[in-house]
UniProtKB/TrEMBL annotation:
Keyword Iron: no
Residue span(s) of domain Mga helix-turn-helix: 73-158
Pfam hit, one: Mga
The UniProt record lists the keyword Transcription regulation: yes
Organism: Enterococcus faecium EnGen0003
Protein known as: Mga helix-turn-helix domain-containing protein
Amino acid sequence: MDFYSLLEKTTRLQITILDTIYHSNKIWSIEQLAEFTACDKRSVQNYCEQVRTLSISDQFRKEGRNYLFLGTNSDFQELILSILKRSPIFHLLKNLCLDSKVTIAEFSEDNNISESILRRHITRINQILKKYQLQIKTKKGEMYFKGSEMQIRYLIYLILWPSYRSVEWPFASIEFHQLFSEVEDSFAIVHQKPNKIKMIEWSFILAVTYLRSQQGHVIPAKELPDFSLDLWNGFEKMAEELTTNYKRMRFSLTDSMFLFL
């Protein structure tokens, strides 16, 4: 699932325009972008200008009626995050990822969005999440993700990793370098040495596991694939070392098995 589909239309289109120009590595005219996005030219120009104002070092440039991107992949990721940070719906999803529950009234006030509009967005998002057996549940003035724990964790990963990657560390309560060291130890146990980006990605996965575990959300054994226990027992020595490693983070056995998969 592309989590950008959960965002409001304005944000989706800004990201689509930036992503299209960056990955094509060529200049695009307003007319071409309007045709590609199925939007009118005035709207496309407004979206482009909004993106350009966020491009601090002028990587997203305008030349006449054309636009191009001259930055690096890091510049591209930083600009994506800058666009997302202006989106109330991204902040909704991010808060739901990082907090077990979010207060509707408090979120609406903090993000200058009415509760009625917020609820309309939640209804729209839930229509997309329904096929994954997930939803944003609202109850007693609070919001939270509802579904199987494995699906919720995967959704959190799909939201946070593409948004932040190696640009920012979104887990304020978790020390990155300490967690990165845990990831290095885990890969050493299974005799693998991935590149740094993959290690950072696994740091995100480990952070999501730790965060949900600390919030009291543990993966039930029945949610794991049927072969999980046999696989875990088949790598007995590695499994024991990983269990010892993950005990420092107070992971349950099912959390450790889930990460091993």
